[in-house]
Amino acid sequence: MDTLHLPTLLAAALLFSSSLALTFDEEATTARRQELSFEHNHHPTDHVHIDIDIDIKIQNPRLLTAHKALHALKDALYSDPNNFTGDWVGPDVCAYNGVFCVPSLHNASESAVATLDMNAADVAGYLPKEIGLLKDLAVLHLNSNRFCGVIPEEIRDMAELYEFDASNNRFVGPFPAALLDVPKLSYLDIRFNDFDGPIPPELFQRPYDAIFLNNNRFTSGIPETIGKSKATVIVLANNELGGCIPRSIGEALETLEQFVFTNNSLTGCLPVEAAHLMNAAVFDVSGNALTGSIPPALAGLYKVEQLDLSSNMFTGDVPGGVCQLPGLANLSVSYNFLTREAAECGALDGNMGRSFHDEANCMGQSRPMQRTADECQPVVSNPVDCTKVEPCGWPNWPPERNTSHHRHRFSQATKSREHE
Ligand SMILES: *[C@@H]1O[C@H](CO)[C@@H](O)[C@H](O)[C@H]1NC(C)=O
Ligand SMILES: *[C@@H]1O[C@H](CO)[C@@H](O)[C@H](O)[C@H]1NC(C)=O
Ligand SMILES: *[C@@H]1O[C@H](CO)[C@@H](O)[C@H](O)[C@H]1NC(C)=O
Ligand SMILES: *[C@@H]1O[C@H](CO)[C@@H](O)[C@H](O)[C@H]1NC(C)=O
Ligand SMILES: *[C@@H]1O[C@H](CO)[C@@H](O)[C@H](O)[C@H]1NC(C)=O
């Protein structure tokens, strides 16, 4: 997925308009229809004679099954204002709008439905169980529609599914665990829906390349397994995740390039292990309740371009090493309770197109637009010492007193991890 590395994708990740026009009534009706369909697995009787005719016309059993699935989907639509499925008639499913066929992986002389692309079709409805019959489907794009209800468990039957994008819909329920059984899935995008409950730990043990869960209502914490992830992009922004950022995150050092945890309810210290993420270009933990000081070890994030620590409860100083990171394009520490910053930080702003934001901190007269002394006093006089708190702290940090050893020890630790 080459496009994954474009920063524009990430910007888009956080910028769906959430103005989906599906009334509560429509949603309730549609959800009820999905329930009924799941209970009785009914097929409207007026389709039976058509099916017999189609059976004769479609010789290829793969396309016959796909025909069943696509018509079940069409029947499950409550509204199709752009007539997206208007031409979903007749036996030739490969000619249907949004359907793309390729020679089957199992028999090159048979066509198979490989892609269903309904992005921005603006249809309303639910996903029927029969969606699982699309066993040859590699790409399923349902982005920006008004699908509601749950994602049916039958999705686990999609043995070839590689890319699943159900973003910007009204899907509900817990994390769709059946997706964890889809063997080839690599790109998982369910952002901008109404999923709730915890993120299953198994998610990060699957070999996904990209995980977009932002703008849902996931609760509980970030599973410890996040360190096992092989993903290049993990976006958990705009959920209701609490607890600390697991120290294991540093173990994802080889692959993780962009992680965005903004706008959750994360607490505790920022783990020093996060500084192991040598390939991180985007590091965003803004909009949480992180405490303690900014780990000077973040100066090890050599590739970071966007570093956003704003809107937390950080105290202490902004380490000079962080402001001197070579790839930095945008650093924000605003809306914290920081009392000092290294001279390198102020020098960053406007230098070679880079931006630096430090407003709404506690640096008094030395910087513009700071918090008042009254606002600062309660937090600044009670700083959290991350070396003393547990959990969510850095006990045994720094590992030894001689600071010029740090970087050396650091790369040693990294190497041994790589060789494991
Ligand atoms: C929907 O599309 C079909 C096939 O293209 C067409 O026959 C039909 O008239 C269209 N319906 C509307 C309401 O535009
Ligand atoms: C491959 O598909 C062709 C055309 O449908 C069929 O005749 C042939 O029997 C299939 N081969 C196998 C091994 O299934
Ligand atoms: C975080 O939340 C604020 C306030 O609700 C919102 O303005 C901002 O756009 C959110 N940030 C992102 C990246 O979605
Ligand atoms: C830097 O980050 C801030 C806060 O996330 C954002 O508002 C701004 O657009 C970014 N600037 C650049 C140049 O990327
Ligand atoms: C710290 O380590 C460096 C490099 O190993 C060494 O040159 C220096 O003398 C040490 N300083 C102290 C105070 O031990």
From TrEMBL:
Keywords: Cell wall, Glycoprotein, Hydroxylation, Leucine-rich repeat, Repeat, Secreted, Signal. Residues 1-21 form the signal peptide. The keyword Ligase does not apply. SUPFAM superfamilies: L domain-like. InterPro entries: Leu-rich_rpt, LRR_dom_sf, LRR_extensin-like_regulator. The keyword Isomerase does not apply. It holds the Pfam family LRR_1. Residues 397-420 are annotated as: Disordered. It is found in: Secreted, Cell wall. This is Cell wall hydroxyproline-rich glycoprotein.
